[in-house]
Amino acid sequence: MIALIDYRAGNLTSVRKALAEVGADVYTPASPVELAHARGIIVPGVGHFAATGALDRTWMETIRTAVAAGRPLLGICLGMQWLYEGSEEAPDLPGLGLLAGSCHRLPASTGLKVPHVGWNRLDRLREASIVNGVGDGAHVYFTHSYVAPVTDDTIAAAAHGETFAAIVQRGHVAGVQFHPEKSGDVGLQILRNFLELATSAREV
Amino acid sequence: MLCKRIIACLDCRNGQVVKGVNFEGLRNAGDPAELANRYNREGIDELVILDVTATLERRRALAETIRAVARELFIPLAVGGGIRTQDDAAAAVDAGADKVSLNTAALSHPELITTLANRYGSQAVLVAIDAKLEAGRYAVYARSGQTSASRDAVEWAREAGDRGAGEILLTSIDRDGTKSGFDCEMTSAVSQAVSIPVIASGGAGGLADFLEVFTSGAADAALAASIFHYSETGVAALKRYLRDNGIPVRL
Lengths: 204, 251
Description:
The complex is a heterodimer. By secondary structure, chain A is an alpha/beta fold. Chain A contains 4 helices and 12 strands; from the N terminus they run E-H-E-E-H-E-H-E-E-E-E-E-E-E-E-H. The model of chain A has no long low-confidence stretch (mean pLDDT 95).
């Protein structure tokens, strides 16, 4: 069972549909205690970083504990940004802090439009299980204004005025800035890879 | 580099595609899901369902169309036509729409833009603007081009963005259905006035029209309906043409 966390940051219909397509058995935990059933955890989300405030200290501690116990975690879009220490979009609100660095707004000075909306190219920086079967230079669908920096955890980067982290993975913690549920076959392959990570993960 | 998007529009009535379709080669003529799947195979970047159903049953018919189209597609899907209230938007989103397109309702109740942006995120809210050149400015029309909204398109696009719209779908009333090319001057005027993406619509006739709207029109995306049904302007051929002319596209 994959826990898809619904914290009211956007509609999850498309994410559910894509997860069903790749064969995932998905449930939405009503409270942190229900995470106990999860083989893997997905934090989706669109919108303002402040929305992640709905994932309070109990949620955060339970998710950290599950990750420490070996459960894979995938953050999508805002959910990926939440894996970092925080975001200048809501400076007083801490992120989960599993990845080093914090998120910032794409620069407006480049003459490029912000938000960054549409299909953009993934530039592979290193190999990781989350990108198994995904070719270098594949296109995926983005819609966001804030970005995470390129760090040692960055598997693939994308560029829009500046280069930012598009796919990250550190052990069994992964994140994607784009929407795999809206990125055609490439997106489905990434969800499949996460599912594989979740089904093969062993308790620590 | 961010790609320019090619968007196909399906004009639907009571669950059937109704406008400008060359049904040849389709198993079930006029079936939106079948057409959507064909476009997807050809590499379309995004789909818009424009509902023109006029009956009381419209909301249910639309939800069924959305569900049928969304079933096997994993690319962005926008839905427009007659979305007047939060409940209309919720029905479309729950059926699988990623974006809702507001036109007349946004003009008469602009606060609906903000309400929906707060509920679903700005990326889910498209404001559609139908406009034409009148006395030196781009005049906005409501009710499918029937009623003057007494608004300037550039100024209205800016306000829509400020109120939380994620994208502008700009249709030239003069060019719509003419295949004489997009209104690049209007598209450029609006695109340069806003920070959000602008989708150009109305007038697509041939490959060069798309190249022009992405260059001199400063469009972020271009939408067309009927022309994609004809093999001479297939989606894949269009994208190869654009790539060969230096426009970044997803291929």
